[in-house]
Amino acid sequence: MLLKPLAAFGALAPIIVLALALPLACSEPTETAAQHEERRRALLGTWMIDQETSDGVLLKSETTYTPDGRFVSTGVITVQGNPQPIDIKGTWKLNGNRLSRAVIESNLTAILPAGQPWRTRIEELSEDSMVTTEGGQRVTHMRKPAG
User: Fold this and answer.
1) Number of domains observed in the structure of the chain
2) How far is CA 52 from the centre of its chain?
3) Is residue 40 part of a domain?
4) Domain assignment of residue 127, given as a range
5) pLDDT tens by residue, 78-111
């Protein structure tokens, strides 16, 4: 065990172990407040998905992220040939490249019920496109043109 060789350091041993372990716990670099705000502003607006996932799910949707931390998703999801409308509302926040949403209202209660957290990793984010991963699925979002 690591603490035994560090016993000579007495009360400082746990602090040394923490200092050694902390870089391992922080696997992603932290972003500055300016970088966070830039990423947050880049996310605002309406994003469209028109994609078939690797497991055969067809997804056509629009999600709008507003400056007040709210989102609305509408569209159609087709699973095994069975189309279902999408109508989901909630709140969102960013932590680095992780997009966390809290679902407040959802018509897809079997898939994404109200109260369930919905987390996505943003792999790429530009002015016109965004690539995310969730549950092993890679999804491409295109910004909806204004107007």
Assistant:
1) 1
2) 19
3) yes
4) 33-143
5) 998 999 999 999 999 999 999 999 999 999 998 8
